[in-house]
Amino acid sequence: MITSEQREQRRKHIGSSDISAIMGVNPFMNAYEVYLSKIHEMDDYVPSESAEIGNYLEDDIVEWVAKKYKVNCITEPNHLWFNSKEHPLFACNIDAFINHDNRFDVSAIEVKYTSLIDEWGTGEETIPDHFMLQVQHQMLCTGFDYIIVGVWIAYYGIERRHYVIKRNQKMIDRIVSYGEWWWNTHVIPKVPPKDSPLPIPKEFSRIKKVEGKIIDISSESWTAFTEAKETERIAKKAKDTAMSKVRAELGDAQAGRVPGEENTFYGTINGKTRTFKGDNNG
Asked: Which pLDDT score is estimated for 104?
């Protein structure tokens, strides 16, 4: 887990979890969310259940990888933050620092817990694109020549895999050039990335508010919001009316056959009224 000081440092740098979102290959976060986190002070994410499990298992996965490779590790947070000397805009946290007897062969362990198996290959360096960018970013910041990735995949049980990811200077150069361009284009002038979709409303709720600060909302945004609310209200009323008509036809029947769809019913099953599949015997 990172310290509060390290969390504040994240606002001043492009981190290893930021870069894939900035470059448009992160399936869970986009560039606009990264932009918000750099120009505003934000409340912490409320982690998903899967993320909580991953945090809980982090030490176990590190220990498992260390045993596999017969290495000693340091996991004390103050030893896990690195800032690139050559490109100081880039900084990262690693999960564990490999403490070799040979001081010229230092590296890191990065661990993951996931239920998504598809992009985790059996090859030595076959990992999802957004994690590949993350690890290459970490090698940019640390100067390491390789990083060991350990992943536990919750897929019909727990499948454990490990990978040695080697430094790819061409990819690192691309990270530097694109990251610096993005920062200078968006963060420095406070211009949001228009080619990135707006985050969901609750993401903006994480921005810590300035007490007493009041701004003017644009007519365009407010009109779009109020019109969307009215459309939603009308649609909900129409849905409720249509649902009442269907349930009026059902009367005391447990279910009714859905027209035009074979073996499909609408009715009450297991205490819930919904559409379900079944046999056609009534």
From this structure: 57
